[in-house]
## 1
Amino acid sequence: MRCWNNDEILEYLSGLRDRGHLDECPGCRSRVEEARGVFARRLVQPDVDAGFFAAQRAAVGSRIGRAPGRWLRVWTPALGATAAFLTLAMVTLMPPSKQEPLVSQDDREFYREIYASVQSEVPRAAQPIQELFDDSSKEN
Ligand SMILES: [Zn+2]
């Protein structure tokens, strides 16, 4: 007759093994009862007052600043997604507004005049050199 090892005792306590050997062996019966007592003690809930956890939650809340309420925590992601969807829908579905030209008619005229005054056949960088040879521009 072989006695159970710890794994076999655990299997019995877990309901995975028949009682079989325990009926014949008082030593293994006592080991099983001892193990059952150990598990029972471990499974007992710690004797802590419920107010302890409430106080602990309050302390954590005060440390991190007042946490948002449940309503805000639950609905913030949904509100954000809805806002994003509405923005996307507005951008894609709304007809394009009549675009105002960036440059008004007056500005166009102004730029045309400037362009005409700057425009010449001689490049701007070459103008001083050309003036050296242009007698009409140098009246000393
Ligand atoms: Zn045994």
## 2
Amino acid sequence: MVNYWIIGVLAIASVFWAEIVRDFYHVASHYWPPLYKLHAWHHRVFRPNLTPVSDTIYKQAHWRHDVPEAATMMVFGLLLWAAAYFSIPSYHWGAAAGCVYTLSFLLSAIARGCGIKGADELTDITHQPGEFLTPPANWFVNKPYHWRHHFDNQNAYYCGTFTLIDKLMGTALSLKGKTVAVTGASGTLGRLLLKHLHKAGAKVIALTSKNEQVTLNLDGESLFVKTVTWQVGEEADLAELLEKVDILLVNHGINVHGDRSGEAIAKSYEINTFSAWRLMEIFFLTVRNNENIATKEVWVNTSEAEVIPAVSPLYELSKRALGDLVTLRRLDAPCIVRKLILGPFKSNLNPIGIMSPDWVAKQIVKQAKADNRNIIVTINPLTFILFPLKEFCVSLYFQIFSRKAVLEIKEVAEKSSVEAKIN
Ligand SMILES: [Zn+2]
Ligand SMILES: [Zn+2]
């Protein structure tokens, strides 16, 4: 009796195998000069709007990169099939699936190389000109994801279909050369985030409510950071600056601890919830063209208080409200939105925090490079179970009981860009 489950699993595994070979062939093409010579044609062929610079180069790029890549996938696919044939003879047909899958890429690459009409539109979907309709996807490579490999950083975003290998290699997000603005930059975590973002190659901007120049201590050397002073309630004043910012990290907050006065309520919600939400909305309006959609991001520090008590009722209430607003708005966000779910770390606000803030900042940057949309850094194992569950359920509930607002964001953004030009 043939077990079809085993054949099915083997078939899926062989497709994954083909994709892993494809991704490593691509990585090797960037690191091994003889292969890069061939692969460079793939990078020469496209303009930023993804139209090919010439028909000849387009065809040559396929003969020099896509065809040998698919041929390599085929060789490794056949090896897997042969291994299955000798080790599990009754199920070896499952491994043939990867070869059939690869054959479709090999034939379509040949068709594009020959310049057969319509082959590119039908089979090369990550290189089609046109508007980006969504931000880069998380688990599958879509057009905005791959666009970054061509025009953001060629030494990142290697994956062709699944993003897993980029996630494992930390190349699913490149911070190199990106302008990153961090609010709450005078605080303990703010400074350390600036430091680790700087180390990852980002150009950092400190946004602080304090009237002081933010400096970083980099292995004993001081580094002056571009510092912009702003006040809660005056988020709109940052609109112009945010136009030039690739990643906005909303990190400011207040903890009134045991205070439950009316003033404490107002202050907690104003700073932790509404100020953060307003900044996120203003940032969305700066996302207008394909490049913005592919490269702009907002990271919001909503804290572990979204799901775990923080022994500070107003901190929890205001951070939970922010967390829910981010969940609601990111359903339609024009760019990537990440949440930072952080456990208690030692800081001026929280002297009894357990985790080292330097380690927390380092982990945040590391997880962002793995394209984690919810960056969880905590020592509480419960958060790793409760937060994803809560996020999934709340997001689903919001999706069912609220309407799409994509067009609204787009229209306002276009209007404000016209206003910006007039002014
Ligand atoms: Zn490409
Ligand atoms: Zn490449």
## 3
Amino acid sequence: MPIILPPITRRRFIKGSIALGGTVMLNSRALVAAADSERAGLDQNRVALLADTHISADPDRVYPGTKWPGSPVKEGEHESVHIAKCLAEAAKSVIALNPRPAHLIVNGDCALSNGKEAEYKEFLRLVEPIRAAGITVHVTIGNHDNRNNLWKLLPFLKQELMRVQAGIIELPHANLVLLDSGRKGVLGEGQLKWLAEKLDERVDKPALIFGHFNPYPNRGVRPIKGMRDGASLLKLLAERKHARAYFYGHTHEWQYDRRAHLHLINQPAVSYYFGKGHAHGWVDMKLTEMSADLELHCINRKHRQQGDRKKISLKD
Ligand SMILES: [Fe+2]
């Protein structure tokens, strides 16, 4: 099963806030969202897709994502983002949707460094308004995450399967399968076998598969090899026509590809990007019987790719 942060009701939220103390400003915002969620409907056919939030223990951390070995960006011309503000902004736009998505997935790399407990505490603080708004948060494991620290912080959510986090969100029009590509970008034979079995048991409904790593070498700005057993994953999905898309993060770049029935959706990072001027933000996914409709929401609403759309056909 994936790591799931269940939504917070207003009563549960008030109880939790008293127990934890502090974080007064954010809690009052979350409290308003909790009150709203008791009035607003949640749409089971709408999912907010985030990836690479890279939250630091320092709430004021600003990071130059374009500064990586071999980057074509000249020294002095790097672009930085305020990491926590990006997630807070994304959370605000997700909560403002009407109807609200019932689910939100962070597809790996919640943390900035290597999944320190302090980073997860800050991450949880930032997603609190989302949970208070009634939205269920799901998290996959990225290479900057640490399962044990995440589990330690949220022991009641620990769902261990073959020593990894993997699971299925069953929605009215599609099954969402969440995979764990670990710190090194490997699914492993056990997880691939599990994926094949679960897909074969659910041929009646289209499946959308999520994992942090790119399944083949990145075609975008930063050379990144990607998942070691990506070829096995792609073969498995190619053999199953009801597997309609693989969603991944890791490259911090909004990209799209298609191989026969399989759509490959590269989610942008919520926080910093690797290429100068690239889009960062999140994706609104609306599911119908026929399609999954994606719309890019940039943190910078004036970005040229704001509102960019992709359609994944769920039927032939
Ligand atoms: Fe990342």
